Amino acid sequence: MHEENPTMSATQTHATEANPAGAPPPTRGGVIAYLTVDGAMRAAAFYREAFAAEIVAAIPADAQGRTMHVHLYLNGSSLMLSDAFPEHGHPLQAPQSFSLLLPVDAIAPWWDRAVAAGATVVMPYQEMFWGDVYGQLRDPFGVTWAMNQAKGQPNGQAQEQAKG
């Protein structure tokens, strides 16, 4: 099923309100995760709702509704998404042996928003032996998200980054 990207027309790949010229948006972060999921545009919409991600670029979907590239900004970093294309040697494989760490100033509003959007709790957040508040969620696409609030940050203090 093809899902339209609400921030892009079918012919645009990089043009957004913030970038009307359509130049490729810059990547943010030193190491960027590039996830292959079943439904890249649905995942982007989920990440927008759950983590206040911004869709900054997307390649239009093919006839089967698959998208070969979606670029998001999430919490100051880039995150890339793609659907699987097994006929081109890029099959879908279940996520394994990794999690994405989301460092936040206040874990409660991030956590609550993600759970309300459909993430499931893997490990409830709590103060850990190293002093930080840490927990893990799994999104509907099978990706595990670890959230970490550094020691000394008051839990529940809403920061600008957690609004969305």
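(ticket continues) Second input and output from the same batch:
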Amino acid sequence: MKPSQKQIDKFLAQKKIALAGYSRSHKKFGNLAYRTLSQNGYDVIPINPNGGVVSGSEKNICANVKQLPDDVNAILIIVHKEKSAKIVEEAKSKGIENIWVQQMCENQELKTMAKDDVKMILGQCILLHVNPKGIHKFHRNMAGLFGLLPK
């Protein structure tokens, strides 16, 4: 089920977003998403099972969803398909209402769950919706041309 633009706008209105799947490697998508969201004014709380600190900053990396601050109400999930549903369940248990599972990270279990959860976003690349640049800007323009963007 394709999300609406209203759902996407509501998610992006959250200024504090947890990011499950943060990577220290600048070559990984989790790192690119972290940098892009941070550069666009979001307070991004990284999650990586190894914990630690974000390189070049004092920002702590949470080892799991349970370690997130209580005021986080949005999570972006960028992990392998087989791990996504578990993180969604952990986020819901923590009371996080706005959940975005990055395109290609969803599975059939999540697609079924999303039918009953109007706040869950699946099948969209967040970088198409947050000040897209380069290939993501091109991708957004092509998606718009072919009517594939949420309405």
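Agent notes: The domain at 5-145 is CATH 3.40.50.720 (Rossmann fold). The mean pLDDT is 93. Closing as not reproducible unless the customer responds.
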